[in-house]
Amino acid sequence: MSTHKRKKPGQSLVEFALSATLLFLLLSAIIDLGLAYFAYQGLAGAAQEGASYAALFPTNGNAVNDPAIRQRVRYEAGADPNLPHRARFINLMDLNNNKKDDFTVDPATVLADYIRISVVKNSANAQVGGVIPCDSTSTPPRRTVQYCDMVVTVRYRYTPFFSGASLLGASEIPLSATRHMTISR
């Protein structure tokens, strides 16, 4: 005698529907994480460009060259200002991801919040990775003997591509990249 059970009609279809749903959800999560990492790489490149420029041209007169550094970050990769969204995966003109150019909305607040520029002094006495402020954060030193760094941090609100991420409570993923460069003039 055989104890074999026969499948009922439609059982395979139900099994496929249950397993395919989980498989597609997992696949969309993997794709979204890859796209978020790709967006982070764009931020890291923009922060590096801003830090390099800030290390070479830290001041504009007696103050930190914030507007020029922020513009350098926004136009990283040589983007055409008329076509900023086509030059890279993330739109560096819209860091808060509200579909409007940050410069036209409220440049003083938005750009200062999403592109932070500071001057710090490296110290052998500071803990690993620790920094202490230079004499003044508004006026960087004129020589590198003080070992001051320009620090550029770029933040971005990444919106997941697939709607499945919102089911897990992630309607936005905050991304941030920071780069340090020693002032070289």
List keywords for this structure.
single chain; 185 residues; alpha+beta; 4-stranded antiparallel beta sheet; two-stranded antiparallel sheet; 5 helices; 19% strand
Tell me what you see in this structure.
By secondary structure, the protein is of the alpha+beta class. The protein has one domain (12-182). 38% of the residues lie in helices and 19% in strands. The protein contains 5 helices and 6 strands. The chain has helices spanning 11-56, 66-74, 102-105, 107-114, 164-167; strands at 59-60, 63-64, 115-122, 131-133, 148-158, 173-182. The strands form 2 sheets. The protein has a 4-stranded antiparallel beta sheet. It has a two-stranded antiparallel ribbon with strand order 1-2. A hairpin with an 8-residue loop joins strand 3 and strand 4. Helix 1 packs antiparallel against helix 2 (66-74). It is elongated. The protein starts with 10 loop residues before the first helix and ends with a strand. Mean pLDDT is 75; it is low at 124-132.
Report on the biggest sheet: 4 strands, antiparallel
What is the SS-derived class?
Answer: alpha+beta
Specify Rg, calculated over alpha carbons. Answer: 24 Å
Count of the domains: 1
Shape verdict: elongated
Distance between the termini: 91 Å
Mean pLDDT: 75
Helix content: 25-40%
Instruction: Tally the helices.
Output: 5
The strands making up the biggest β-sheet line up spatially as 4-3-5-6
Q: How would you spell out the order of helices and strands?
A: HEEHHHEEEHE
Total strand count, please? 6
Strand content: 15-25%
Give the uncertain stretches in residue-range form. Answer: 124-132
